[in-house]
Amino acid sequence: MDPYSLKKLNALRMNRQAAVHVTDLGDGRDRVIEESDVVAGLLGKAVLRAFRQGKAFTAEVDGRTFFLNPHLPPPRLVVIGAVHISQALAPMARLSGFDLHIVDPRTAFSTPERFPDTRLSADWPETVLAQEPLDPYTAVAALTHDPKIDDHALIAALKADCFYVGALGSRKTHAARIERLKQAGLSDKQIARIHAPIGLDIGAANPPEIAVATLAQIIEALRKRGLQVAGARAA
């Protein structure tokens, strides 16, 4: 690997930014491609595939063979609310490879007994997220039903362009939430990114089933997230 490419990759990793290291197997030349870089034609489509799948592969482009090795930040899941759904969601999220963090200022709920082997923050989301900012490789699931706890996290998630933003609650509850978020200065386009009611529509009827539906929706959003790679628009 070219020393410049290695230096660039390390810098991107430190900032939780994704990149694809592309090597021409014919002449050995390489380059590091970020998600915002313009890559045209068939190579651009291959780069898009690498970003989405997160797995290395070779691709034949115009008679040349390229090795594409994606370097993606580990996906994070920040759950707002140490509730029953969170108890079911936590072990499944860890098994699925997510760096899990549960945030709830209510100390009666945020206990190691209820959430063994789980990172907990018994503090307000505005305090926690100020110390650990959200980013596009983070999912946020707001599950408390309490606007004083959920709303700040939702606002922060939308402003940070998190790949997934979901909130528990009925359509009536969400309608009231929309009005609050508008008053907070969010646009209709930003608010429309919230998955509410949260989770895939599988007819979930209890906390474990809601947890399954939520995690499935988060995984879908991660694997199908929109990427600003020009190859996605190439003919």
From TrEMBL:
<dbReference type="Pfam" id="PF13478">
    <property type="entry name" value="XdhC_C"/>
</dbReference>
<feature type="domain" description="XdhC Rossmann">
    <location>
        <begin position="77"/>
        <end position="218"/>
    </location>
</feature>
<dbReference type="InterPro" id="IPR027051">
    <property type="entry name" value="XdhC_Rossmann_dom"/>
</dbReference>
<protein>
    <submittedName>
        <fullName>Putative sulfurylase large subunit, molybdopterin cytosine dinucleotide biosynthesis</fullName>
    </submittedName>
</protein>
<dbReference type="InterPro" id="IPR052698">
    <property type="entry name" value="MoCofactor_Util/Proc"/>
</dbReference>
